[in-house]
Design a protein that fits this description.
There is one protein chain. This protein is mainly beta. 3% of the residues lie in helices and 63% in strands. It contains 1 helix and 11 strands; from the N terminus they run βββββαββββββ. Strands 1, 2, 3, 4, 5, 6, 7, 8, 9, 10 and 11 form an 11-stranded antiparallel sheet that branches.
């Protein structure tokens, strides 16, 4: 398959800066542009973060933006019709608080998030009338969303000990495109619901 030996390029540029609106409030706008030559897809990704310091220990944070993820290279190689697949799009919103416990040297972060997905890959044969169709043709018409909360605690190195604890509770749903199931939802990729990670050392 000659597709497996194609040479292609990716290009990207990113700019970000910090604006101090006033003493306790700062904005961090950003802008990213990427180009994937193989499928001739250009993505434009604006991002916007803000931090409001309620006091020296407590911050209120927000983040909004567009992100894109290119299809896996193997997806392009499966079928010549897959060459025009668009990159997956995620519109993300995050709201959180950060608190620093001075006496224990611990930072605690609690965030809630929502992501809206477009251009998700879907097997084309699932929406054809031919029940025997088992082609590797993919379409990028899928939609979905995910939402949840995340908790992260970090103990910086002190007295020869450090550690982190991360827990997330989330739900991921994709819209069904199959005839007769339009409007229904099913569990999306990486729908782990509960995730716990603990690291540490001394």
């Amino acid at each position: 398959n000659s597709q497996l030996h194609d040479t292609t390029f990716k290009y990207g540029a990113y700019i970000s800066f910090i604006l101090h609106a006033f003493d306790r409030f700062r904005l961090v706008p950003g802008f990213r542009v990427d180009k994937f030559a193989y499928n001739n897809f250009t993505s434009i990704s604006p991002r916007f973060n803000s931090v409001f310091s309620i006091n020296e220990n407590l911050d209120f944070t927000t983040a909004f933006g567009l992100q894109y993820q290119d299809p896996e290279l193997v997806d392009f190689s499966l079928d010549i019709r897959n060459k025009k697949l668009r990159s997956k799009q995620a519109l993300t919103g995050i709201v959180g608080i950060e608190y620093y416990f001075n006496q224990w040297d611990i930072k605690l972060i609690i965030e809630s998030f929502y992501k809206n997905y477009k251009n998700l890959l879907f097997d084309a044969y699932l929406i054809t009338e031919d029940s025997l169709d088992q082609s590797s043709h993919l379409i990028d018409r899928g939609k979905g969303h995910s939402f949840g909360i995340e908790l992260f605690a970090q103990k910086k190195l002190q007295k020869s000990f450090f550690g982190t604890v991360a827990f997330s509770l989330s739900k991921s749903l994709y819209k069904d495109l199959r005839p007769g199931h339009e409007g229904e939802w099913y569990d999306g990729d990486h729908d782990f619901r509960h995730s716990l990670t603990i690291t540490g050392g001394c």
